[in-house]
Task: structure prediction
Amino acid sequence: MRFLIDECLSPSLVGLAHQNGHDASHVGHLGLGRTPDHLLMPVIIGGDYSFVTNNRRDFLRLYRSVNLHAGLLIILPAAVRAEQLTLFGRAIDAIAAHGGDLTCELLEVDATGAVSISPFPPMPQP
Result:
């Protein structure tokens, strides 16, 4: 997978992704720090990134209008670096158990380390 880590999360998550065989970059390393969220979307989608953030509200709203994406990972709550690493590690393990692909899916990991994966945007109900 190819992750893009949001500026609200530690750059150390990039190293954890690399240790687990994934490509990863941090928004700050790409010179995109302080870029408004809506302006990050073309970079995320165009770069085929699975985006990792803890900015749940804004990115759920932005992703609702995207038909095809490489996945949205939300780490809740805002946490210190060590906890972010633990929670992102849980997410990486869950992705592997899920077949290694999050296309058009939302992965959320909460403070307890519980992971949920669901289609996103949600499928319309008949």
Remarks:
- The first strand starts at residue 2 and ends at 5.
- The beta strands are 2-5, 23-26, 50-53, 72-75, 105-109, 115-119.
- Residues 12 and 85 are 8 Å apart (CA to CA).
